[in-house]
Each structure stands twice: as C-alpha cells, then as structure tokens.
Amino acid sequence: MSLxxxxxxxxxxxxxxxxxxTAPRARQTIGLERIEIxxxxxxxLPVTVREVLDRATGDxxxxxxxxxxxxxGRDLKAEGVARLRDAFDADGTVIRHHVLGRDRPELxxxxxxxxxxxxxxxxxxxxVSIGSGTVTDIAKDASFRAHRPFIAVQTAVSVNAFSDDMxxxxxxxxxxxxxxxxxxxxxxxxATIAEAPASMNRAGFGELMAMFTAPADWYLANAIxxxxxxxxxxxxxxxxxxxxxxAAAAGVAAADQEAxxxxxxxxxxxxxxxxxxxxxxxxxxTEHTISHLLDMSAERDGRGLxxxxxxxxxxxxxxxxxxxxxxxxxxxDRIAVAAARAAPVDLASRxxxxxxxxxxxxxxxxxxAECWSDYRRKVERWNAMPEARxxxxxxxxxxxxAIQPLVLAPESIVEGLRAAGAPTRFSELEPxxxxxxxxxxxxxxxxxxxxxxxxDLIDLSGALDGRAWDAAFxxxxxxxxxxxxxxx
Length: 488
Prior knowledge:
- Helix content is 53%, strand content 10%.
- 52% of the residues are buried.
- By secondary structure, it is α/β, with parallel strands linked by helices.
C-alpha cells in the first residue's frame, strides 16, 4: 500500500510541542521524551533505558504477563530482558523480570495485580513494561506511585494506553480512568506488532473509531457548560490523519507493516491528545462507556473479556446512529422551554434506574454506589445550569454545524471496520456478547460516570420527541445498526 506523507509525525515530539504551544490555551505538558516506531525499534531499548537510568540508581525491573509473544519466531519478552542484561551486566546493574498474574487465568488491572506490581517495583530505578494495555496500565500505575520513571514496549496496537499519562483500573468492580504519569519513552517495534494476533491490531482499529464519535461528545459537554476543556487543536492533532487511517484499513487486515505503522502513529497521537487535554474525553465518549459496561458484566459473569477496542468499534456504529438522530431531529425549543422553567430532573427517580442497571454487577452494592456517585453529580450539574441549557437551545444551529464534521457517518464506520477485518456486531466479538448484555450496556451506558454525552442530552432534555435513552431507545438504535450489518 502507499500513503502520502502527513503531519503530525508522533515521533517528532518537538514539532508537536511547538504546534500545541501556538494556541492560547492551557494544556498539559507532554511528558514523553522519546518515541521509537520502526521495524527494528526493539534495538533502541537498551540505549533508551540507559538514558533514563543515568538519572537514577537502582535495579531495572521488567514487568510482563504470562501471555506468549514472539518476534522473529523468538520469545519476545525473554528477548527484551536478554538485550537489557547484555547491555547492563558489565555495569553490575541488576535486571529483575517479574511476571504479573502468573497464577491467574487472565490478568486484570485490579487491586490484586496492583499490589503485586507495587511489591515488584520496590527498589527499582526504572520500570520497563513489555506487553499489552493491561500490563502497561499496571506498570504505569505502580511506577507512578513508586515515583520511578517508566518505559513502555508496546506489543500490539490494540489501545491508546501507551502514550498518555492515565491508567484504566478496576475499582469496586467499576472501570475507572485515574491519573498516572507519562512513560519516559515508548518503543513500538513493528516486527513485533506484525506478529501480534491479528485480532489485537484489528481491535486497535476499532478503538480508533472513537475518533469519529467521542470528539462530538466532548464538544457537547463544553456547549452545555459541563466541561470547559474542549480544545479543537487537540482534536485536529489526530483527526487530520483520519482519512489515512480509513485508507489503511485493508492493510491492517493483511498485517501490512506500512498500514500497521499508520495505525501505530494514529494510536500514539490519540494517547498524546488525551494526555495533553488532561482527560480521556478527546477519545472516550458514549462508545467507551458501552465497552466499559461490557467488561464489567464479563467480570461478574466469569466470561472472558473481548478486546476493549473491538467493543469500542462496534459501539461506535450505534453512537454514530444516535448522533445522526440528534443532528437531524433534535428540537431545541423543548430544551429552551424546560430551561426557562428551570425545570429540574428529579434525582429521586434516577436512583432506582442506576440501581436497576448496576445491582446485577455485585451483591454488595459497591458498583451501584460507585456509579451513582458520579451520575448524581452529572444530573445535579444539569439542574444547576438552566442558562447553559437556554444558550445551547438558542445557538443550536451553530452547534449542530460544529458537531456535524466531528461525527463520521455510521455507514463509513461499518465500511472501515469490515475492511480492517474487525467486528461490526456484538455477536462477532470474541467471546461473543449475549444480546441481552449488549442491550443492557447500550441502554445503561450514560448512568455510570460523570461525563456529559449525547446519551445524556437525549435522556435529560427530552428534545428527541420526549424520548429517553432507555431500553426501548437502545433497541431502536440496535435495529438501525442491524440494517447496516452492525449492532447485535
């Protein structure tokens, strides 16, 4: 395949910093010092670690999980550890390799894994992770709390957790994104990426479909006064290459290295965008909450987890359909009338809905309490902002014009996913998501966190002909998705 050169280049951190410095807006500083993307990037690992180690003293701790991974037919993790030992043995530097979750069938970023990682990194001068998103999040969190620098060796292009300063962890059975720190360096070895399971890289393509829905949620939260951080320059940082990503879809399916390089570049840029914004909102909207609920349900039921990014891609089709309805049919007069009356949403009626959605997740009620705490704040903020609602209604034509280019047509998302060989239906995920679980996740996605999205606009405003975002509405969206070859 052939792709035209494009900017920005994620490995040129200086250019990205200069670009972001031109706009008059406060942004987080990019903490990454070095990004290596290439077919032999693993060769740079020893010199990258030495650059960091020169600023600290102690052991080098390598964290992995027990999942077999190969590079050129050899054990990738053993190869990475061996290269470090070859480079540092003469210095007397100790290389400690710790395999996380060795006694567990599947590693999760939960309290048990975090405690294990805390013990493993004690006495480390630098922490190196070799593995996928879960290992990276655990290592990132452990090194952050130990105040140690961290280097990530990315083994698949499945999620954008590698290039930001946040970690996705399980707390009380609920997925939460928590502050962490940037990796000092990121190593993306394309020879390794090409040997990763095809399903992982295709999941990465699905993850990036959020770039065609989540920015609209972020804009909306800003327009309603719920989040003043919306930053169009941060969105442009990754959306400028959106057409290139879609053009690379067939190459991703074929594990073409040039296409995987584009996928890696896009994934890295989206991670940087979230880190610069200081939140996941640039790439995490309604589609991600659906995926989080699917993960939480799998934890409860003892099902295996489908790839997060693959779930995001399937959910993005449903969310794009919801946005199509809003952009076509929303009646701003309904918002204006309610705002003029300052009519509040009844919190007492909302608590049972949250309980009905999440009591199934655990018998202790901890998951429901966790979700209600966040959701209640969101509804209270909506009730406290009648002026913002009135402004949204009055300026709706301008807002609609701004949101329209942020949302890709659902047909185009389906086409891209199919070309990449990624799932378009919940039943195509591995393991397949039961239809009742998928319906529940779509219907309940807005009840889990304090972030205003298109689902909240529909549910709280009644501006789509009085409709709520509920089970009946979810079924309608899923039926529309089915007509496109997506949905259930």
